[in-house]
Hints:
By secondary structure, this protein is mainly alpha-helical. The protein has one domain. Helices cover 72% and strands 3% of the residues. It has six helices and two strands; from the N terminus they run ββαααααα. It has helices spanning 13-35, 43-51, 57-77, 81-99, 105-124, 131-139; strands spanning 3-4, 7-8. The protein has a two-stranded antiparallel sheet. A hairpin with a 2-residue loop joins strand 1 (3-4) and strand 2. The two termini are 20 Å apart. Mean pLDDT is 93; it is low at 1-5.
Amino acid sequence: MKKLFFGSIENSSSTDLALALVRIFVGLSLMLVHGAGKIPISDGFIEHIGSLGFPYPTFFAWAAALSEYAGAFLLAIGLFTRPASVLIAITMFTAAFINHGDDPFGVAEKSYLYLVISLLFVVLGSGRFGIDAIIRKRMNI
Length: 141
């Protein structure tokens, strides 16, 4: 167990609780504030995706919407956390650097935050308080 200043950084219930709170808050925020408004896909959103240069705008519009809605839901409950976070990270990278590439930092800030937080969950997984942990425990892995 590594020590960081005065407490442990690994295998701590408070660390796992904090990770769960961030995971749930970020997942639900992304799902309800950003993803829910994109489903069902509108013609305007498809046209916007096409204007960014994507070759199959309907496919990529659905991919973005589903990563922000279903991927965020999976993140919130801690199921398939790493794969869901990879999809969210790809979508947020696209939002930050392609969609908001020429915008001021303040306009793209949410995309950067969701990108960095999703990368955190790619690395760390769901923690002990996610469904992934329950599955790992039952499968003894």
